[in-house]
Amino acid sequence: MAPLFLFLILSSVFSFGASTRTITNYSFSIREATIKDIKQSIERNQLTSRQLVEFYLGEIARLNGLLKGIIEVNPDALLQADAADKERNCKLPGSLPDLHGIPILLKDSIGTKDKMNTTAGSFALLCSVVPRDAGVVSKLRKAGAIILGKASMSEWANFRSLNAPAGFSPRGGQGKNPYVLSATPCGSSSGPAISVAANLVTVSLGTETDGSILCPASFNSVVGLKPTVGLTSRAGVIPVTPRQDTIGPICRTVSDAVYVLDAIAGFDSNDEATRRASYYIPPGGYKRFLNPYGLEGKRLGIVRDPFFKNVQGLGLGQTFESHFQTLRRGGAIVVDNLQIDNIDVILNVNTSGEAAATIAEFKLSLNAYLQELVVSPVRSLADIIAFNLKFPDLELTDEIDQGIFLAAEATNGIGALEKAALLNLENLSTNGLEKLMRDKGLDAVVTPRWDASPVFAIGGFPAITVPAGYDSQGVPFGITFGGLKGSESKLIEIAYAFEQATMTRKPPSFKP
Question: Which residues form the Amidase domain (predicted)?
């Protein structure tokens, strides 16, 4: 397993060599470029995948020491770029998949059968060996994507301790928000959001159990798409709970997120949930829903209490009122002042049952994942707890407890308590978001930032966050559109049309 610093040294050579000087003479800037921009430049022989990777390696060398968005660079990234360039020369223009030759970062919980580690940010899994690529990675390789490296994350997907800082892991250090360095990057998919926002990569892939895509996307002014649970395979991904875990893109634009979703969605024999969810995928995929007029005729529900009441106190109310007008001008029918039944219960992980169910499922699913590893220093949650006790001096880990780990280890499968919690979660979803949307005939609900993530999490529902503005300190915030299972097509139309009408995102400022 080659260390990150070696590739940062190598990449600094690329960064300041002739290839970068060539890049700066192109008619477009790689920084902030979309997949479509990059592909057009490649097709015009203005750019190669090797030059693209060299550019990102240079940016990683320049910025990652500050931002800590990347935990490990793929030693084979340039070889993959060269292979993409050679393959392109043998194919007809436009005949290759959309992600062909495009660099992507994977959250460090997404398994790769290569020279890189998969550790969830923990030294406990350093040098472990996965049996195969994660299902989504297999699809990315088939699409011709270049796996640039592993992005940092909140250790164990923020499921070790209640007092762990967002975006921190022992292996990766403390991730920084590229807009305001003292602000939270949020987690647990902190690194994918940081790295895309700061132009260290074209696109990235994160995971969400509850808020782990939507929150970092909101705080880092990028697009985060949380798919319906099962639409993308979780096989080979370090789990929290298969009931809520989902894998989705974190990108600078809605269109880039859709290109990634098209590449990774679909059936995987190693994840049974994909069998049923694959029926949600429309013929021809999701790209055709990138419609600038996608707001026309959509019924959108505004859930003010408690979500928009919360942002009023932060001075963001007027911004969101302006966004509601944008939705109306785009042809949407805005149904205002809606409420989700039992919302206070849903938002409290203890009263909803989410905590009780998830910690028991975590132990079961994590132990199963660890048992499947070809090589591993740890084989159970109990082993990880013991490892952390034995090596407590790794950066901040001596200050972070193992409260969630200990609670999970104390569980004994799915008993009466967990069954009651699961039933309660099902009822809360059925009588909450599902009932509201069906009674009001909604295509989506609209909420600020990532605040409604538990609503979408407990029901396995999809949601997408789009940049919506910056507060008085310059910290970004997003707007979220969520819907019922399989409604990605509608959500993409709504999000894309909103994005095109507002064009809110701007590059990061790196304020202290």
Answer: 52-448
For residue 137, give its domain range: 4-289
Work out the average pLDDT over 114-121: 98
pLDDT of residue 395: 56
Tokens of residue 273, six digits? 């949930």
Gap between the Cα atoms of 301 and 463, Å rounded:
14
Cβ–Cβ < 8 Å for 257, 234:
no
Q: Which residues contact 138 (CB under 8 A, 6 or more apart)?
A: 132, 268
- Please identify which residue in the block is written with the tokens 């600078």: 252
Task: Outline where DSSP puts E strands in 433-475.
Answer: 444-448, 463-470
Q: Respond yes or no: is residue 115 known to be catalytic.
A: no
**Annotated catalytic residue 107:** yes
Dig out the tokens for 301 from the structure: 């529900």
**Residue-level pLDDT at 235:** 98
**Does residue 8 fall inside a structural domain?**
yes
* CA-wise closest residue to 109 among 130, 88, 79, 94: 130
Chain-centroid distance, C-alpha 108: 11
- 346 inside domain: no
Catalytic residue among 15, 138, 152, 212: 212
Conformational region of residue 459, where left means phi above 0, alpha means psi within -120 to 50, and beta covers everything else: alpha
| 387 within a domain of the structure (yes/no) | no
Residue 223 lies in a domain: yes
User: Helix 488-502 and helix 254-264: axis angle, to 10°?
Assistant: 160
Q: Rounded CA gap, 52 and 314, in Å?
A: 40
The Cα–Cα gap between 113 and 406 comes to 30
Scanning 90-172, the segments in alpha helix (DSSP H) are: 135-142
Span 42-57, average pLDDT: 96
Mean pLDDT of the chain: 94
pLDDT band with cut points at 50, 70 and 90 for residue 39: very high
Q: Which two tokens stand for residue 292?
A: 């600038």
What's the rounded Cα separation, in Å, for the pair 328 and 466?
A: 17
Task: Please tell me the total count of domains within the chain.
Answer: 1
Q: Characterize the bridge pairing of strands 223-226 and 246-251.
A: antiparallel
Active-site residue (options: 11, 128, 188, 365) = 188
Q: Which of 39, 68, 107, 176 is catalytic?
A: 107
Catalytic annotation present for 218: no
| Chain segment 324-335, per-residue pLDDT in tens | 999 999 999 999
